[in-house]
Write a structure and sequence with these properties.
Layout: H1 3-7, E1 26-27, H2 32-41, E2 47-52, E3 55-60, H3 61-65, E4 87-89, H4 94-104, E5 113-117, E6 120-125, H5 127-155, E7 178-184, E8 189-197, H6 201-215, H7 221-224, H8 228-242, E9 249-257, E10 262-268, E11 273-279, E12 282-288, E13 309-312, E14 317-320, H9 324-327
Parallel strand pairs: 1-2, 4-5
Antiparallel strand pairs: 2-3, 5-6, 7-8, 8-9, 9-10, 10-13, 11-12, 11-14
Length: 337
């Protein structure tokens, strides 16, 4: 069976997927001269497995070729066989193996990993190849997570609203914990909200999926008929119950009520909201700080009724919601602007 077909027996996350099973083991009766010839005839071999009475070992190209053309080239290869290599089943997870290898302090030279399948020798994996493969899988995972996150953000922006909203999202890395949701709740009230998850990267991205699942409630009649405070309280309880301990989310939820001509604002541990108005040709700016703890700290939000801020709706008012990615932005040297 060809190597690719052998490797395809295993899942992408199993070490057997990348094991080089094209190199057959030799015996410890090989001489240095035999081993040199084998390496010279196969320039891609960095090592060769060796079957001995005490188990499998490995000889390395660099060490064998470094012996030169000595008078002892007919000596057996026994003293050059290494038995301190890592060994794993072909079914083992590549990420777990990489962690073990890094913890052991393996470097990129003469540190191949021996792979077994059903208690028999299967192949070798170079440490450098393992790291490259793990990084490739991580990149693919991040790309998939980014696509999911972008899909959720796109879903979070309705096609039509009775007022103008301009969302912008630029992650510091491929995925992250920033999220926004914009949607009509009923014919009078629309929600404009922004979130920042305490955990970044994959943790943040997964938590944004939790947020998105909550907002699916807005398709239900029960949620449509509830007041803004009910939505905020239930979102907090949902985050508290659906995310791991220690994960919390800062947020601003802004409820635009066209019937009352007012905006209700709940700031939960987030950055300040900025409001700009043009008064007699002069631009006036208002700042509103957070009055409530982040979502998910506790299952209750004490003092929420007194912590709601209100603003009048007017045609000259512009409101800016942003995350700390804006206020903490740095240049290429890491210096904040």
């Amino acid at each position: 069976m060809q190597q690719k077909e052998l490797n395809k027996r295993f899942k992408e996350t199993q070490i057997g997927r990348i094991a080089d099973c094209s190199i057959d083991p030799i015996t410890s009766l090989y001489t240095l001269s035999d081993a040199k010839t084998l390496f010279e005839q196969n320039p891609t071999y960095s090592s060769i497995p060796v079957e001995t009475n005490s188990g499998y070992g490995i000889i390395y190209r660099n060490e064998i070729l470094a012996t030169g053309n000595s008078l002892f080239s007919d000596d057996k290869i026994r003293k050059h066989i290494k038995f301190d290599h890592l060994s794993f089943s072909a079914m083992e997870n590549v990420f777990q193996i990489a962690r073990v290898a890094l913890k052991k302090g393996l470097d990129h030279k003469d540190n191949d990993i021996m792979i077994y399948f059903k208690k028999s020798y299967f192949g070798l994996v170079q440490f450098n190849d393992l790291l490259l493969y793990v990084n490739e899988l991580k990149a693919l995972d991040e790309k998939s997570a980014k696509n999911v996150q972008q899909f959720l953000l796109n879903k979070s922006m309705p096609e039509q609203l009775p007022f103008s909203v301009t969302p912008y999202n630029q992650m510091a890395s491929s995925i992250g914990g920033d999220f926004y949701h914009i949607a009509p709740i009923n014919q009078d009230i629309s929600l404009v909200s922004i979130f920042d998850v305490s955990g970044k990267g994959v943790t943040g991205a997964l938590s944004t999926i939790t947020l998105s699942s909550f907002f699916a409630l807005f398709s239900m009649e029960e949620a449509k008929n509830k007041p803004p405070q009910w939505i905020v309280e239930n979102l907090n309880a949902y985050i508290y119950n659906q995310t791991p301990h220690g994960v919390f989310i800062t947020a601003i939820l802004m409820f635009v009520n066209l019937k009352s001509k007012k905006v209700e604002i709940y700031n939960l541990g987030h950055t300040q909201l900025l409001s700009f108005r043009n008064k007699n040709g002069q631009i006036l700016m208002e700042e509103t700080a957070s009055l409530l703890p982040p979502l998910g700290i506790d299952d209750q939000l004490p003092g929420i009724s007194e912590s709601c801020l209100e603003m009048e709706i007017s045609s000259d008012r512009k409101i800016v919601l942003y995350s700390d990615g804006l206020s903490e932005a740095t240049n290429e040297d890491g210096v904040m602007f």
